[in-house]
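Bit of a strange request maybe. I'm writing a small parser for structure token strings and I need a real example to test against, not something I typed by hand. Could someone generate the tokens for this chain?
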Amino acid sequence: MNKISTTGALDQLCVNTIRTLAMDAIQKANSGHPGLPMGVADIAYVLWTRFYKHNPVNPDWHNRDRFVLSGGHGSMLLYSLLHLTGYDLPLEELLNFRQWDSRTPGHPEYGLTPGVEVTTGPLGQGFANGVGMAIAERFLAETFNRPGYPVVDHYTYAIVTDGDLMEGISHEAASLAGHLGLGKLIYLYDDNHISIDGPTELTFTEDRCARFEAYGWHVQQVDGHHREAVARAIRAAKSETNRPSFIACRTHIAYGSPNKKDTAAAHGAPLGEEEVRMTKENLGWPPDAQFHIPDDVLARYREAIPRGQALESEWRRLFDRYAAEYPDMAELWQQAWSGQLPAGWEEALPAFGPDDGPLATRSASGKVLNAIASRIPTLIGGSADLTPSNNTELKGFSWLQTGQFGGRNIHFGVREHAMGGILNGMRLHGGVIPYGGTFLVFSDYMRPTIRLAAMMELPVIYVFTHDSVGLGEDGPTHQPVEHFASLRAIPNLTVIRPADATETVEAWQVALEHHHGPVALLLTRQKVPILNRTAKAGDAALRRGAYVLADADDAPDIILIATGSEVHLALDARQRLAEQSVQARVVSMPSWELFEQQSPEYRAQVLPPEVTARLAVELAAPVGWERYVGLQGDVLGLNRFGASAPYKVILEQLGFTGENVALRALALLDRAQR
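Reply from user aminoacidic:
Good idea to test on real output. This should exercise your parser:
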């Protein structure tokens, strides 16, 4: 296993070029992970030159294969491949590895580097993303393909690591992938027996192959440095159409290094100048050459350009014939891939009035989803085993299951973390609008995937129901308190907590039209009134983040700001205050993020600076509200966990009543007058 099986001197040069580029870039940066690129160079070379269907000139070709480097710390492997095969990643970018404003950051970043399909950093995320890509491919194939027209027909490949397999998300995602029988999903496992702390046997001794067989995967084991064996395994994987494939490739970290091969020292630190020199000599490389790419090596890799152009041209001719025979489907295809919604889709949105309530916002959300489902054929999603509670089912549409990949409803199972990663992968694949639901308290399980969706600006929609202690008897383990603040702290995540059914309709419209980041909808379990809108509130007020729902007759003495189910409490308190000659303005603020995007003039209209008496009301930790209430304001929030009791009892015991809101407002005004 220590010898490299060669099929030619040029092949060996091509593989060693990956190794030396990785060593040189990491040594120059004095930072990085050389072990993985050096260890999997043989595997990557075989995959990228013999099997991987892509066009370096057009990285966004819809029917390309997808490649995920789940162990993103080995980024120099991917950057080397992208440069060598002809993507828009010049050699200068490899020289600037891990430097400010380069396109070669420490871990690959989607949207920054051409050819990078996904931002992989935290281990296991790429594993789940690949499953999402494979689901999207199967759904789109079932939706668009017609006899003789396989316009969607590609594979999802990934290189995964020991760390990926240790992380819990990989267990969740692998289980679902095996259940669904995703036959176009092929993972190559870098089985190098080394982790940061030392040999993997310190913590990781289960039979990984048996584990994946139990999940229902097609499993093979090969010598990862025997290129022909790797090629045979990939061919066998492609011939298995009913199961995802797991190819365990026994490799040696930092292959070629005389002193650091098979050691943890090669995982996350440069080899050192002398070790780099000795490694090059060991590989038959000019020891003093820096970033050296032999001409015949570059020519071999650059064969990917004409090959990719020919593959895409052939596909485009196929699609042109498809469009001529199925013009309606071709039009839907263009809409799906452009991210645009079908014309007139919003006409299907329901309208609610006070007579339709009270209604839980989770129920209103379900009504919205089902009203628009037939208008948006690529809207697809589901729930983490909470479908009846989250109201996420598209009624009248089938479920996506093995052999029935056209279903628009997905059973994710009790797998919140994997669901988040899969949703990201589906959106990264393109052509679909994915959503996923669970209880808000379980968003904690999804936080890494939500954060990455925000980082990648992916328009994924989260349906988080049971948004407060108002869910009642299940008790504090299921009652979110700190979660509003936790989600609002994630940059580029839009959090919307609608007050009633009407705001829920507007929230869904905002979410579906939002193209540069995820949206989290926080929805009630308990029924809430459908509020009367004043002329001042205007139409589609929610998209501005905050608006005046009910105003004082004259200049307001105090502003009551509330979100979600607490808005009707603020309206109740306003009436009580009016009886004591106190003029109160009620502001519904369903989204801080949307409000911050408004002009300073609009924000000042809603929250006049001269009115310093402000009371925010929200069934959550009060963290962050000081930006809106100021030093002279107050927050009625929760600095404790909830309780198990009927929700009305909980709300009364915790002071969330119209009467108590009015009392807090009066106390605030009294302090201001002293």
